[in-house]
Design brief:
heterodimer; A: alpha/beta; five-stranded parallel β-sheet; 18 strands; 31% helix; 18% strand; B: alpha/beta; globular
Chain lengths: 423, 169
């Protein structure tokens, strides 16, 4: 009989065919999916081919998504995307997503049912940890790790220690998963969970939608975490129904499982959060930044580009106009989210409010294209990083927030909470 | 392996966006990447750095994105080794996988000043500060990772395992 294990340990034990694993063990885990994008795949393909590899281990389990610099922003990006496209065709990959069929990788993989509970997934993108929301083990790696994964269907991992975060209580109006995770990163710092698993538990997580859980797990990396994870429950089951392409394996942490530490958080005390430049841990209540003038608002990304996020933004923007000094841009996370937003009338709300609505792309989040900042400009963004130069000029500033604060700010022209503009 | 060079000292949380800004990720050519290495944190770095030089930093070096272009740019800029109090997880793996030597050495990060001359003995895990005549001891790699380092990077390690039937063919 195995010792009690937490969910991360249980998934990894299963994936390496052992009865039990412990934090600190090195294991070779079997992969359910390996993912790369148009920035990280070219380097992975180069390493893969340089090592003399000819075929990927499973053409159904290697997923390539062109989402960062597409629709191609310049000739060099076009060359890189072409390289990815040609590799996908040569290898006969079932899951290759390009312009018109794509979306932001971490929005479309769960949406298409490619990731299911119990999976082990690596992705050459740091926000691969998003899929932990499904009760899967998912972590970001570099291109060479991905190349090795494409070749062998395995990845070496050190089983992480786990920090358990208990979220209890009733959240205030407009407080979302984004506020929970920003608050948490503010509490523990950008290396507060370095090399560790972040297990999100408690009644407030049970009450959180799948989209809210994706947002939280997405930002585990911003605390240095290896993975974020939520135990699957009825909400997860409902999400997987009619979507999951493989049989989900719903794991739960055992009674008496080991944790490196346990942190209790009362969500009732969490105000709407904003992370000031230049670290995601630099969080303050949005109300403390009330007079700060803003030049641009970005709503979208792998963090907050799902339908629920767009509904929140539309709730605030409906019947109002974006402040004349602000450029507001909405990026739906996928073609499906885009279509849903049209069907629900959200796109009309945005266009009436004088918001630009874009095809899905990672573009502005990492300062790639479609919303670059000039020197001295400030942006409130629902994305995940506010490092120096992240969205453009090194003298520009990014303030991270959830969709409610971003939409309210777009109207006010200064950092605002929904109550200020909905009055 | 022994390296000798001048220390380029940075603080904590040096992220991959400042090591190699995303605006240059439309290429994976090491030389082009190197030309912009550390540009957003230290504009003169690429003009100052000499082959063999050593980057020394505080906690959480390489945090943020998974871009392997970050250690690739550092290596292609001629840096022999990165010494830090701690490394962000993905950067740590990437550096080992591509064969960029890294050492976890809080003592060195605390004691080294910008411009000090250093000698690093990788096998001994030793950082000698020639300017201050001090020696710092780095942490050892776990055995599992040492195998990858010894093989000369991850792909060579994988090839070896595949040939011996150790991984799924």
């Amino acid at each position: 009989m195995a010792k009690p294990m937490n969910i991360t340990e249980k998934i990894l034990a299963r994936a390496c065919g052992q009865v039990e694993v412990r934090a600190g063990d090195f294991v070779n885990a079997r992969l359910d999916l390996a993912l790369a994008n148009d920035i990280t795949a070219p380097l992975a393909i180069q390493e893969f081919e340089a090592a003399g590899m000819t075929r990927v281990w499973d053409p159904e389990k290697v997923v390539l998504v062109c989402d960062h610099f597409v629709p191609n922003k310049d000739i060099k990006s076009a060359e890189q995307a072409k390289l990815v496209r040609e590799f996908a065709r040569r290898q006969g990959l079932t899951n290759f997503y390009d312009v018109g069929r794509m979306g932001i990788e971490h929005v479309i993989l769960p949406e298409k049912g490619l990731v299911v509970p119990g999976d082990v997934v690596i992705g050459a993108d740091s926000h691969t940890c998003t899929y932990g929301a499904l009760g899967a083990f998912a972590t970001g790696v570099g291109s060479t790790d991905l190349a090795a994964g494409m070749a062998t269907g395995e990845v070496w991992l050190r089983v992480p220690e786990t920090v358990r975060f208990n979220y209890e209580g009733e959240p205030g109006r407009y407080v979302t998963g984004k506020d929970y995770i920003l608050y948490t990163i503010g509490l523990i710092g950008v290396d507060g969970a370095l090399y560790q698993a972040m297990e999100f538990c408690g009644s407030a997580i049970k009450a959180l939608s799948m989209d809210g859980r994706f947002t939280m797990c997405n930002m585990a990396i911003e605390a240095g975490g290896k993975n974020g994870i939520v135990e699957p429950d009825a909400t997860t089951e409902e999400y997987c129904r009619g979507r999951a392409l493989r049989e989900p394996v719903m794991m739960k942490s055992d009674e008496g499982a080991e944790y490196e530490r346990v942190i209790d958080i009362d969500v009732g005390s969490i105000e709407l959060q904003v992370a000031k430049p230049h670290l995601p841990s630099n969080t303050v209540p949005a109300s403390e930044l009330a007079d700060l003038k803003i030049d641009q608002v970005v709503i979208g990304s792998c963090t907050n580009g799902r339908i629920e996020d767009l509904r929140m933004a539309a709730e605030v923007l409906k019947g109002r106009k974006v402040h004349p000094d602000v450029r507001a841009i909405v990026f739906p996370g996928s073609q499906l989210v885009y279509q849903q937003a049209i069907g629900e009338g959200l796109v009309d709300v945005f266009i009436d409010a004088e918001v630009a609505v874009s095809t899905p792309t990672c573009g502005p989040c990492l300062g790639g294209h479609m919303g670059i900042l000039a020197a001295g400009e400030r942006c409130v963004s629902t994305t995940n990083r506010n490092f120096v130069g992240r969205m453009g000029h090194t003298e520009s500033e990014v303030y991270l927030a959830g969709p409610y604060v971003a939409a309210a700010t777009a109207i006010a022209g200064t950092v605002a909470v929904p109550e200020e503009v909905l009055a | 392996m022994i390296f000798e060079g001048t220390a380029h000292k940075y603080g904590r949380d040096v992220d991959t966006d400042v090591i190699i800004p995303a605006r240059y990720l439309n290429t994976h050519d090491p030389g082009e990447l190197a030309a912009h290495c550390m540009e957003d944190i230290d504009r003169d770095f690429i003009g100052r750095v000499q082959p063999g030089d050593i980057i020394v930093a505080d906690e959480n070096f390489g945090c943020g994105s998974s871009r392997e272009q970050a250690p690739v740019a550092i290596r292609a800029a001629g840096v022999s080794c990165v010494v830090a109090t701690s490394f962000a997880r993905i950067f740590y793996r990437n550096a080992i996988n591509i064969g960029l030597p890294i050492l976890v050495c809080p003592e060195a990060a605390a004691g080294v000043e910008n411009g000090d001359r250093l000698r690093v003995d990788l096998d001994k895990g030793e950082v000698v500060n020639l300017t201050r005549e001090t020696t710092y001891q780095a942490d050892r790699f776990p055995e599992f990772m040492q195998e990858i380092v010894t093989a000369g990077g991850l792909m060579k390690h994988v090839k070896k395992r595949k040939q011996s039937g150790g991984a799924n063919a």
